[in-house]
Amino acid sequence: MFFWGRVAPQSPEEELTPTAKPGYIRNFRNLNLRISEGNSFSGYERNPFFINLGGKGFANIAGLLGADFDDDGRAVATSDWDHDGDLDLWITNRTSPRIRLLRNNHPEHNKSVTIRLIGNGTTTNRDAIGARVSIWPEGRPELRQIRTVRAGEGFLAQSSSWVHFGLGEAEKKLSVQVEWPAGGTETLDGLKAGKRYLINQFKGAKEIRANSPSVDDISIPEIDEVRQEKGLWLADRLPFPELIYSNEKGGRQSTREFSGKPILVNLWASWCEDCLQEMSEFSENQEKIRGLGATILALNVDGLTTDNQETEALDGWAELSRLGYQLESGKARPENLGKMEILLEFLTSRRQPLSIPTSFLVDSKGEVAAIYQGIVSSKQIISDLALLKARSQDQLSRLSPRPGRWFENPLTQNSKTRLGDYSTLFARNGFPAEAEYLLQLPNPSEKATTPQELYNRAKIATAQGKIEEAKELYQAAIRANPEYGQALTGLGALFLTEKRSDLAQPLFEKALAVDPNHAAALINLAMIDQSRGRKESALEKLSRVIELNPDYGAARLNLGSLYASMGEFPDAIVQLKKAILLNPKQPAARLTLAAVYADTKQWERSRDLYLSVAQSHPKLYQSFLGLGLIYERQGQYLDAVTAYQKVITMGGRSARVYTGVARAYLALGQKKEANRALETALKINPNYPAALKILRAQ
Predict the structure, then answer these.
(1) Contact 585, 618 (CB under 8 A)
(2) What is the DSSP letter of 397?
(3) Cβ–Cβ contacts within 10 Å for residue 401, how many?
């Protein structure tokens, strides 16, 4: 059996020195980042349990015991926790459950003896670390077993200081010999199997009675009762984001139309064999699902790429018809996948794209109750739909993959802070309307009052382009807490975008006075320094941020841009590549690196980066502007004109763009079109040097 504790490892517990602390924090963050990206610390090596085959070797029986967990294991410690004469195991890992107690219920636990040594505290330490204990049946020293008392026996783990001997078929009466660390040996006879002894240095052995711990009354499930349920059942539920999808007739529908009844939102594709198997099963059991007052919304993702863009779609409707599926269905949009990726990231801290199939069980309140990644049976869905109506106490068993007892009740209500963090993540990723909706829950009429609430609303107002409203909210948050660093830097950043560094700088400096290592304040002050030509000062601040947190992508991006402005292109490329690795979905670092490659005449690399941004972020005209310049340099003037015109149609009209069009047309010998583009450029900016230069040269 196991206990699932909601405890995260926080080692080390001692206070770190100022020198050691940044390194420890950096390494801990690197480890967490690796886990968050779906990687493993240990390689997901399953725990082995070996049985002695009587001198013929050992066999791994972990599978038979049900203990070969697919976890990211960290540490294991042994202890006779229930004092029944056999060793139990405590296991920790970095995924979940975080802590397990595997209780050993061997039927012949009396065939053992347990000894605790106590040193005299002078010649031998009180815990007798280093002592060597030998035990054998009286008169049979050839059956001697030896143990050494150690301070630790594994990574991040300390086993019990009691020395445990398994005796097998040994005689009842035993001899014990203790070799104390500072010298001296004592031998004791007449000890009995199935007992616990305390041995004080040179004071003999004393039999003691064990006090049974509080877990002794816990019933132990049989191995064949172990459940193999799939899916992540959530203790702390969150609102499912609104998905706008297309129905078969091309109309728009929303998932919020199903409010008031449970719904399974299933992502599937016609090319996915597991999806088709799943959909076939759903079809066979659709009446049972309807009978539970629920439905399934099958959202087809045919034609959606990993970059959340649409390509030519297959006929998912025909496939549903073939399978006899008659529940709800629709065609997913690119933004649907983006929202669900945000939900998964928030709940699991995993920065991974959605796999197909993936399903979300949403309760009648519109909150996510379970997530299934991979194929899930209708039987499981029907069981979980019924469980939605059960008491919270009955749902506890579904939260863990195996039977056990909870140290505390994990079923909690969503706090305003948690909803605020959740909404901010949507705002940061381009879904301000969703963020605003979430902030209104659960009390739409309630006004924000706490600094955290005001700050969250300011972030969302910023994402919606409501700059003045955002300023007021930041200022309210600062009035409520004058030392609120995030609000200070948020307000400062707004002033900085308006080129009001005179107003922004004092805010960043105040945030830095509160926290000398405030990364956002340092980065923004570095930007101010750079704009004023104080590049060395900017370099020092950005380097400081990266020293504190090497995984801060924004700092890497700014440092790369700074190096580029200083003409130190190799250093710029190194920093920008690291920024891309840290934030692969964000286009800024790729655009900047593409510009650096262009500056260093690495045309092919520059073009490839611009093309990748154009594919993943087709609404950003900056990539097409860069492509226009590259095509010009490579003599591909017709492609250059096409790229520049793309910029214009996307709202990127500027004298620079029209001048580029003019240059390309002149190279193609189309002087009339070139002059027309020059006229437009000079209307936008009558003093634009590049346009005037071309005009004078004609």
Answers:
(1) no
(2) G
(3) 18
Which DSSP state fits 157?
A: B
Q: What is the pLDDT of residue 213?
A: 46
Average pLDDT over residues 88-114: 76
Question: What are the tokens at 600?
Answer: 């260093």
- Report which DSSP code applies to 567: T
pLDDT of residue 265: 95
Alpha carbon 665 to its chain's center: 50
- How many other β-carbons are positioned within 10 Å of the β-carbon of residue 33? 15
Q: Which residues contact residue 371 at a Cβ distance below 8 angstroms, ignoring those fewer than 6 apart?
A: 231, 232, 234, 344, 347, 358, 359, 360, 361
Comparing C-alpha atoms, which of 69, 67, 70, 73 is closest to residue 51? 67
CA angle 153, 159, 163 (to 5 degrees): 100
* Cα Rg of the chain (Å, integer): 33
- Asked if residues 592 and 564 have their Cβ atoms less than 8 Å apart, the reply is yes
Please answer whether residues 522 and 512 qualify as being in contact, where contact means their C-beta atoms are separated by less than 8 angstroms.
Answer: yes
Which positions ≥6 away from 391 have C-beta within 8 Å? none
In this prediction, what percent of the chain has a pLDDT beyond 70? 82
pLDDT surpasses 90 at 615: no
Number of H helices, E strands in the chain: 25, 23
Helices 603-616, 621-633: inter-axial angle, 10-degree rounding: 150
- Condensed to tens digits (0 to 9), the pLDDT of residues 447-456 reads 667 787 788 7
Answer whether 216's CB lies under 8 Å from 312's CB.
no
User: How far is 168 from 176, CA to CA, in rounded Å?
Assistant: 16
| Cis amide bond preceding 410, omega within 30 | no
Question: Which is more confident, 151 or 512?
Answer: 512
Give the number of C-alpha atoms closer than 13 A to the C-alpha of residue 55, restricted to the C-beta side.
0
Query: In sequence order, which residues have a C-beta less than 8 Å from that of residue 78 and are 6 or more positions away?
Result: 87, 88, 89, 90, 153, 159, 160, 164
> What φ, ψ does residue 197 adopt, rounded to 5°?
-130, 145
pTM comes to 0.54
Long-range contacts of 309-318 (CB under 8 A, 24+ apart): 309/334, 309/615, 309/616, 309/618, 310/334, 314/269, 314/270, 314/271, 315/270, 316/268, 316/269, 316/270, 317/248
Element containing residue 132 per DSSP (H, E): strand 132-137
The domains found in the chain, sorted by start residue, are: 2-102 (no CATH), 112-212 (2.60.40), 233-403 (3.40.30.10)
Q: Which residues have CB under 8 Å from 105's CB, separation 6+?
A: 84, 86, 220
* 464 vs 435: CA distance, rounded Å: 10
- Residue 183's pLDDT band, with cuts at 50, 70 and 90, is confident
Whether residue 298 is predicted with pLDDT greater than 90 in this model: the reply is yes
In 160-281, DSSP assigns E strands to 163-166, 173-179, 185-192, 196-200, 204-207, 232-233, 244-246, 252-254, 263-268
For residue 458, name the pLDDT band (cuts at 50, 70, 90): confident
